[in-house]
């Protein structure tokens, strides 16, 4: 603003008080409207902008999936406009390719671009493998999960009920992207053919399949018109069940029909599956998962889904119930309660300080009204910029900062009012004129300092908008909310506070200091005078304190961010890759029984393998164990959550064949979706040869195992899956006139079965699968004896045209940037991540990397490194912006640089607070230091401005410093106290999410304390020395 504009703006607000207060009412209504439709989440959506291409092809091993499906899709997706990363995983029967786009690319445009590229690759993908796109959802999209329970209903019955009734009704809920089914058995009709009877009747396998497909048809014959009536003609030839299937005619021998029942047995059976769900050590069950559409309000969608489940429950068969085991809205509600409690407690403390210093109820209430009104401004800003209400966007608001401008304005009103004549004339118009004559100059007197002081606080947050990646998504919402609220508070301080004060404050009164404050002022002035007499000693002590504090930084641990306590534990389990699903279920049941012995545990649910809609790439040897806990206040063992995890790790460590990794549900999904790694630290080994990758990964594992603090150390599974390989002898095959497709048909029928058609039962579709008896595929010898009918009618044993051998094959093959990758991952306990990785990197020199192979560090450490590198640029930028504003304010480089000295003074308290509370230096603490800069600098501005005004009025340098420090002591203490107390509830809270807020709040409180103390003592000393030196130099030159 140009000179005088802000003063004219404030004066106009006082002249048009009714208009201003009407505008405040409109602002409040707009804020309430914005709040009403504001999405509520536990945490900001930290997921990168990605599209997942899922391709399922049952029967193909990981190497075939990699070569025939993953590579064609990956190469087609390379170079997609806006794509930043392509990574993939190939497993038995599954290819999952993830394309990460720049955040600026709209999600539906990204999906369209991926679809176009995938269509180009379809001709290179095997027939029957159909690439599909994953749900339009984020890492936090799995908002609600439940079990379909019912002791009297089999898991097949429950899964059928869920798939064709519950799932469809839940998918219709607004905001739901998909409903996924996990576990249970999918119903099929199995046509189990007898090879001997096929041979007796001279029927081939293909004939059976074709007969079933050809006898399951409906058709239309058009319509008939007779007189005034039209009748449609419909032919119904659909199969309805086993009896119809058995009666299908395959062929005829000498006029006698050969039916399916003559060569096969028809029975109901399960589809081969890649996953299962168990609970509480009681065996298998069925689970459902509600996946929320990206961009929706998690709390609202969750509430709607739960209402629909209540409706569905009333229509389910007797004994079948839907039992929740994961509800993300619980985390949302608990974190929201923490934020709400902290904001309310902080506002109460700030209002108490205001009343304590102002000693005027009306004045205090006017200033206090800025708190809710500025929050409504924050809600408007959040709505405009698409920010949800969550722990980060609302968790860093300090009402002490928000009311600073209003406090300065009101303090001046109270002082000027006390100096005025308390007697007002009876005429209303004359009283109004006198009030305006009093309050207008008082408001104009402090309008410009308020403007620049608040602008400095806002400017501190501006560099946060330059943060990128995960840290940007985490803290940009906070910066938007805080800047919106503070900007609203600035407008209110310059308009609404003067307008309301001129109407509501009583005139007259006495302006006096409390006796306790007079004694405090006298003691302070004695210490300041002593410090100014011993300037070198004072500066030496200050420099020493700052140096010790900065030097002690290397003894404070570092990490990316403290983990949000979700109130539950997720244990990732891993067994041998060659394990069967039945054995994996048995082991998971024993794990659940062990976990349930802990009294803190209320429920245990394990998800094995992957669900029907392959949103996960887990194998049947992998499991996610959801451990729900009783409220911690009810625990009787004396353990906290970390202690419980240690006890669980020790107990599970004694279980052979099971490796575990401890995390939390939302944290696991975020880590997996964002980086593809589910751990604190990951070492990614890149190269082409699988044997070399495994050897290098083993070397890396050995190094990490010797680093203190390592926990849950695992090497990503690569090999270990068991396979029967059938090497075709093409010469023998040609001799019998056979081709590879003939062998494939027999093997598919023997092992997995061949789908012939579907039986429709209402909305249900039940596959009809033709397969050989179990005994013909029990072992290699049985498979070798399977016969293939040659064109000449000869029966050729499979073992004659193919060599059947058992071998090991890769279980999973991961790519990043189209290059093979193997991950060694671990968590860190009892130590900070930064020092752990630093030691590990030093030790990693013993791992010799061949040409073409290299390591890359990932996991949380990767986020930490990127964030700290960015902060190394952001923090100097903040200081540069502050310095520029200080120069504009003072038009003096010396004094602007002098006030910047408050920053290292603030660092002392912030660092000390981290050390005393045993907290690590993380992103939350770093943002706390940035916020602290504004408060620290503001104190210096208040003090130096007062000294400059006294010098301009004719006081000498030394006298002006003492008088200015004395006059502004209350303002400095009041500003510092409200800023610190506003963060106290966050610093001491133990509610859900408090661990994320605690470092930021602790840094600000500690920094405000030391910067205030050092500002009041050291800053005047340095000011006097600099000014004396400057004028002495000027005299010598002049």
From TrEMBL:
Keywords: Cell membrane, Membrane, Transmembrane, Transmembrane helix, Transport. GO terms for cellular component: plasma membrane. It is a multi-pass membrane protein. Its main location: membrane. The chain crosses the membrane at residues 342-358, 365-385, 391-410, 450-467, 479-505, 536-556, 871-890, 897-915, 927-948, 969-988, 1000-1026. InterPro entries: AcrB_DN_DC_subdom (IPR027463), Acrflvin-R (IPR001036), CusA-like (IPR004763). It is found in: Cell membrane. One of its GO terms (molecular function) is xenobiotic transmembrane transporter activity. PANTHER family: CATION EFFLUX SYSTEM (ACRB_ACRD_ACRF FAMILY), PTHR32063. Belongs to the resistance-nodulation-cell division (RND) (TC 2.A.6) family. This is Cation efflux system protein CzcA. It comes from Luteitalea pratensis.
């Amino acid at each position: 603003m140009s000179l005088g504009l802000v003063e004219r703006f404030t004066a106009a607000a006082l002249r048009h008080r009714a208009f201003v207060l009407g505008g405040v009412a409109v602002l409040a209504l707009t804020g309430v409207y914005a709040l009403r439709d504001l999405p509520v989440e536990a945490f900001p959506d930290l997921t990168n902008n990605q599209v997942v291409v899922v391709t399922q092809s049952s029967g193909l091993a990981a190497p075939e999936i990699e070569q025939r499906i993953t590579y064609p899709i990956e190469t087609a997706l390379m170079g997609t406009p806006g794509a930043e990363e392509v990574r993939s995983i190939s497993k038995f029967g599954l290819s999952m390719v993830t394309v990460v786009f720049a955040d600026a690319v709209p999600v539906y445009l990204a999906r369209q671009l991926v679809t176009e590229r995938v269509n180009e690759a379809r001709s290179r993908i095997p027939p029957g493998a159909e690439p599909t796109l994953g749900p339009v959802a984020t890492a936090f999209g799995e908002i609600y999960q439940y079990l379909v329970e019912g002791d009297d209903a089999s898991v097949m019955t429950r899964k059928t009920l869920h798939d064709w009734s519950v799932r469809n009704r839940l998918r219709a809920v607004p905001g739901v992207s998909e409903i996924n089914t996990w576990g249970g058995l999918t119903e099929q009709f199995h046509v189990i053919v007898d090879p001997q009877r096929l041979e007796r009747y001279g029927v081939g396998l293909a004939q059976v399949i074709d007969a079933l497909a050809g006898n399951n048809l409906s058709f239309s014959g058009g319509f008939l018109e007779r007189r005034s009536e039209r009748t449609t003609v419909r032919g119904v030839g659909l199969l309805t069940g086993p009896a119809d299937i058995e009666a299908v005619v395959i062929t005829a021998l000498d006029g006698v029909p050969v039916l399916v029942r003559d060569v096969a047995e028809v029975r109901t059976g399960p589809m081969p599956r890649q996953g299962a769900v168990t609970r509480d050590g009681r065996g298998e069950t069925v689970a459902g998962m509600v996946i929320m559409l990206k961009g929706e309000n998690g709390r609202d969608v969750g509430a709607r889904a739960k209402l629909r489940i209540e409706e569905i429950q009333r229509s389910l068969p007797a004994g079948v119930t839907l039992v929740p085991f994961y509800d993300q809205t619980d985390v949302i509600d608990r974190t929201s309660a923490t934020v709400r409690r902290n904001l309310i407690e902080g506002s109460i403390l700030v209002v108490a300080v205001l009343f304590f210093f102002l000693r005027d109820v009306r004045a205090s209430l006017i200033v206090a009204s800025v708190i809710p009104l500025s929050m409504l401004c924050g809600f408007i800003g959040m709505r405009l910029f698409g920010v949800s209400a969550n722990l980060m966007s609302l968790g860093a608001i300090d009402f002490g900062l928000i009311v600073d401008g209003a406090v300065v304005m009101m303090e001046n009103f109270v002082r000027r009012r006390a100096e005025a004549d308390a007697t007002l004339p009876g005429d209303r118009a004359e009283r109004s004129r006198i009030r305006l004559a009093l309050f207008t100059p008082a408001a104009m007197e402090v309008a410009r300092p308020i403007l620049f002081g608040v602008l400095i606080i806002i400017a501190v947050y501006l560099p946060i908008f330059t943060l990128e990646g995960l840290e940007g998504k985490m803290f940009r919402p906070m910066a938007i909310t805080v800047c919106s609220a503070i900007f609203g508070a600035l407008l209110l301080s310059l308009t609404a506070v003067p307008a309301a004060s001129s109407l509501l404050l009583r005139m007259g009164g006495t302006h006096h200091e409390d006796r306790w404050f007079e004694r405090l002022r006298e003691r302070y002035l004695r210490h300041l005078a002593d410090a100014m007499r011993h300037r070198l000693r004072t500066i030496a002590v200050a420099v020493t304190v700052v140096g010790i504090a900065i030097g002690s930084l290397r003894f404070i641990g570092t990490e990316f961010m403290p983990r949000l306590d979700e109130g539950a534990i997720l244990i990732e389990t891993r067994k041998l890759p060659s394990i069967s699903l039945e054995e994996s279920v048995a082991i998971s049941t024993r794990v659940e029984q062990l976990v349930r012995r802990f009294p803190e545990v209320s429920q245990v649910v394990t998800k094995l393998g992957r669900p029907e809609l392959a949103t996960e790439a887990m194998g049947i040897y992998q499991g996610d164990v959801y451990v729900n806990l009783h409220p911690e206040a009810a625990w009787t063992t004396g353990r906290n959550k970390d202690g419980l995890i240690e006890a669980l790790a020790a107990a599970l460590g004694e279980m052979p064949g099971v490796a575990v990794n401890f995390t939390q549900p939302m944290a696991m999904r975020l880590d997996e979706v964002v980086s593809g790694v589910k751990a604190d630290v990951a070492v990614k080994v890149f190269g082409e040869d699988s044997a070399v990758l495994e050897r290098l990964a083993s070397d890396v594992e050995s190094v990490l195992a010797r680093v203190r603090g390592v926990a849950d150390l695992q090497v990503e599974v690569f090999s270990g899956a068991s396979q029967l390989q059938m090497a075709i002898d093409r010469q023998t095959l040609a001799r019998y006139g056979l081709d590879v497709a003939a062998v494939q048909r027999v093997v598919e029928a023997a092992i997995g079965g061949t789908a012939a058609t579907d039986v429709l039962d209402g909305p249900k579709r039940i596959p009809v699968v033709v397969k050989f008896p179990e005994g013909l595929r029990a072992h290699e010898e049985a498979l070798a004896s399977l016969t293939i009918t040659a064109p000449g009618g000869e029966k050729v044993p499979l073992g004659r045209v193919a060599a059947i051998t058992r071998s090991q094959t890769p279980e999973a093959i991961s790519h990043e940037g189209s290059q093979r990758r193997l991950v060694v991952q671990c968590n860190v306990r009892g130590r900070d991540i930064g020092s752990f990785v630093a030691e590990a990197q030093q030790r990693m020199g013993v791992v010799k990397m061949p040409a073409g192979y290299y390591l890359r560090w990932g996991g949380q450490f990767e986020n930490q490194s990127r964030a700290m590198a960015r902060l190394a640029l952001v923090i100097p930028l903040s200081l540069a912006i502050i310095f520029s504003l200080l120069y504009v304010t003072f038009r003096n480089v010396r004094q602007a640089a002098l006030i910047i000295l408050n920053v290292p003074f603030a660092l002392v308290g912030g660092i000390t607070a981290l050390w005393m509370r045993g907290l690590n230096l993380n992103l939350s603490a770093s943002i706390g230091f940035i916020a602290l800069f504004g408060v620290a600098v503001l104190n210096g501005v208040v003090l130096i401005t007062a000294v400059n005004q006294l010098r301009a009025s004719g006081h000498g340098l030394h006298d002006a410093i003492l008088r200015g420090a004395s006059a502004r002591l209350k303002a400095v203490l009041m500003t510092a106290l409200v800023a610190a107390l506003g963060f106290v509830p966050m610093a001491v809270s133990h509610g859900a999410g408090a661990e994320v807020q605690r470092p930021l709040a602790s840094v600000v409180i500690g920094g405000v304390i030391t910067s205030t103390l050092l500002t009041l003592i050291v800053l005047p000393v340095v000011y006097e020395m600099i000014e004396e030196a400057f004028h002495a130099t000027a005299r010598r030159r002049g």
